[in-house]
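Risk register update: the risk of archive-format incompatibility is retired. Evidence:
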Amino acid sequence: MQPNFSQKHPSTHRPIDLILPRLEKARRSKNGWIARCPAHLDKTPSLGVRELDDGRVLIHCFSGCDAADVVAAVGLTLADLFPPRPPGPERQFAPSSNPAFSPFDVLRLIQHEIHIVLAAACTALNGELTREDIERLQTAINRITDAIRLAGVKR
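Archived output:
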């Protein structure tokens, strides 16, 4: 029987409590949880899930699925990975002096993307990149750039 994902959740939800029950084979790991990725046919768990101290949930598919596709596959949105904002005036966010990820974590998470860039460079030297190659290269560059920003690295 498939779970009913259409139910509305209360505004006081914990994001981790929303996503974990919707994932197959979810189990604790060193830094959070690991589960089968619902966005692709996943035989062995490749989805990393981590809850931060402030309640935000970070997800990463080590096979390359986008976070939006992962949450959509279980009936959620990216907004569901964040705790509800307290009522009141709009909050102003300052750059964090304590980034969500350490530089080591960032390098570990983008390792696959770095390999994509290297493979594209080798392909470009030996021939022409296809449109699909160029699109995947752009995705890798975007992910690397986002990871650098999330790590708090300043240029």
